[in-house]
Amino acid sequence: MASHTPVSIDNAKCVLVIGATSGLGRSLALAISELPSRPTVIAAGRRQDRLKELEDKKLATLQFDVAADEETLKKTIDSLVAKYPNLDAVLLASGIQYQVDFNKHVNLSQVNKEMHVNYLAPVAIISMFLPHFLKLSAESRPSFVIPITSGLALMPSPYVPNYSASKAALRSFSISLRAQLKSTHVNVVEIIPPLVESELHDEQGTTPMLAKFWMPLDEYTTKTMEGLRRGDEQVAVGMAGTVLKRFEGLDQPFPTAGIERERK
Questions:
Q1: Residue 246: which pLDDT band, with cuts at 50, 70 and 90?
Q2: Pick from 60, 151, 209, 233: most CB atoms within 10 A?
Q3: Is the dihedral of CA 246, 101, 167, 215 positive or negative?
């Protein structure tokens, strides 16, 4: 039986970062590529011009759309694992955010898209990688599933209620997945960002206001990498870390005893 003592991202040999063409994903992909262990980093995203820029920084790249249909995702992931058999970490950074006011007309297509990209697609992608990661686990090799949720999963914002709900769903899934995989070498590491400098806010026109409060991206990346290298199962810095400690009680382990009894 595997023991889930802290496992550092330094142990990863090949890391796929989905959503690496901007924001947190891009910054973390570059930071991981500079670890002393020098893992192979595959930067995945939709925008070819951004991928080319990452190629110039010596990262491997992959054009990848999380909103693709299930068959396309499966073919892409299977071919990726065949090409990179040492792939042992996937970091899911893709996300979209819409402001929704339920006092007014609600664009349900946006609501559905937001839930799909932020929750349903990550669950599908993780499920498609797990057979490979469980095979590595059987060889006593660690692997990493790293979803990026949000501080808004802990304390929702009325300005982005569906985004908050989608990230809360992904957080809930991550906690349950970690419990299910407790007896394996698959490490579920949730990254919980606070408000961070990001292009995510540009389309909504909220950047000028939020820039007064957000954590600079470089500072956030440095602190998050510290948590990943320590082997934290929940990497929450800044205000997200404060809220997590206040409302979740980091000293209280997740109650997995019931799950283990059912398996026996």
A1: confident
A2: 151
A3: negative
What are residue 92's DSSP bridge partners? 18, 147
Q: Report the distance separating Cα 37 and Cα 84, nearest Å.
A: 17
CA 229 to chain centre: 16
Q: Structure pTM? A: 0.89
Q: And the tokens for 78?
A: 């299977």
Q: Where are the beta strands (DSSP E) in 65-159?
A: 89-92, 143-147
| 244 Cβ neighbours under 8 A, 6+ residues apart | 154, 192, 234, 236, 250
Hey, CA dihedral for 218, 222, 227, 229, is it positive or negative?
Answer: positive
The pLDDT assigned to 193 comes to 95
Domains of the chain and any CATH numbers: 9-263 (3.40.50.720)
Instruction: Map 171-211 to HEC letters.
Output: HHHHHHHHHHCCCCCEEECEEECCCECCHHHCCCCCHHHHC
Averaged over 98-110, what is the pLDDT?
Answer: 96
CA 256, 260, 10, 122 torsion-angle sign? negative
Question: Coil, strand, or helix at residue 149?
Answer: coil
Nearest-angstrom CA–CA distance, 32 and 229: 10
For residue 235, the SS3 value is strand
Residue 121, judged by CB atoms within 10 A of its CB (0-12, 13-18, 19+), counts as buried
